[in-house]
Amino acid sequence: MPRVVTRNHKVILIAGGAGFVGSNLCRRLIDEGHEIICVDNFQTGNRCNIAPFLQHRHFRLIQHDICDPLDISGPVDEIYNMACAASPDRYQEGPVHTCKTCFLGALNLLELARRKNARILQSSTSEVYGDPEISLQDESYRGCVNTCGPRACYDEGKRVAETLFWEYGAHNGVETRIARIFNTYGPNMDPADGRVVSNFIVQALKGEDLTVYGTGLQTRSFCYVSDLVDGLIRLMASDEKMPVNLGNPGEFTMLELAEKVVKMVRSRAGVTFRPLPQDDPRQRKPNITRAKTILGWSPKVNLDEGLAATIEWYRERLAADQEAEAPAGQ
Ligand SMILES: NC(=O)c1ccc[n+]([C@@H]2O[C@H](COP(=O)([O-])OP(=O)(O)OC[C@H]3O[C@@H](n4cnc5c(N)ncnc54)[C@H](O)[C@@H]3O)[C@@H](O)[C@H]2O)c1
Fold first, then answer.
1. Is residue 274 situated within a structural domain?
2. H-type helices in 180-248, by residue range?
3. Which of the listed residues 13, 21, 46, 188 should we mutate to test ligand 1's pocket, taking the one with most ligand atoms within 8 A of CB?
4. Considering its fold, how many domains does the chain have in total?
5. Active site (catalytic) residues
6. Which domain holds residue 172?
7. pLDDT tens string 28-61
8. What is the pLDDT of residues 11-21, one digit of tens each?
9. Radius of gyration of the chain from Cα atoms?
10. Does a structural domain hold residue 253?
């Protein structure tokens, strides 16, 4: 039975709420007047991301690893599972923990959703498509994933999490939603987390050469975080139980992205080429027809606008970090 909410705001649990996407989601949902319970183990999350909400009467922080079962006092209407390191550098530091986060974490949150009669959304990923053999990935594509490579803990973890969500949705009476998220960027993305947009911007701002892996001709699609957050909220509110792609279909090579960043930062940085990591996908481009049809959603922020806002955020963040590191009295 779906929960009937008689309060005029919802109680929303965001696992991974101190991370990049999770903290942007916290901000949007707090601004909409909801009560937020942020659950995070701070593996990759940062207290700076949630500092603006810590004193808010509608914000509660619980430091907890979702690999362990959790109980929450009081009602919970919705759960967003955003908890999992998303940067390959970070999720490969503890691959078994990444598998556990994806499987046990999802299981523990699904059990919580079942007990609370809450609706639950899984942040899945385009990585479930692996290194795709088709150029435009729609949700019916079953993927090309290596089960025994360095990315497998994340890719296969996310695949089994989708299966768990599907099972709980189909047979255990839980209202489940699955978002297949493609590369997203924007404010609150850790400057050191190793993803391409943050790498390029930080390197350009520091006047260092931008590191390009392989030939730089591999492609990615980049979605600005406010667009993604909007899509997640729409998906949660929808009746759709099957996976939905959320991403920006604009496709760019790594060299095109590097060129844009250097130009926008007005940097003189060049490019250094490094070998392509194992199993790095050659291309990524979402087909978002289902998101358009079912959710009435499509991204609004183009790459130039999104990069401009993101560069500004990194400029301020690096300046604040520098100030914090400067010896007292300087
Ligand atoms: N950002 C993207 O481009 C992208 C793309 C596809 C999918 N996703 C998915 O979206 C979600 C959020 O990604 P992000 O970019 O914000 O990553 P992130 O690393 O910035 O945030 C993840 C958050 O989850 C927390 N976390 C990790 N493991 C945990 C655990 N076991 N228990 C409790 N907290 C835990 C981290 O401390 C962090 O706050 C992830 O599930 C990721 O797989 C993101």
1. no
2. 196-205, 225-237
3. 21
4. 1
5. 154
6. 11-188+223-248+284-300
7. 999 999 999 999 999 999 999 999 999 999 999 9
8. 999 999 999 99
9. 19
10. no
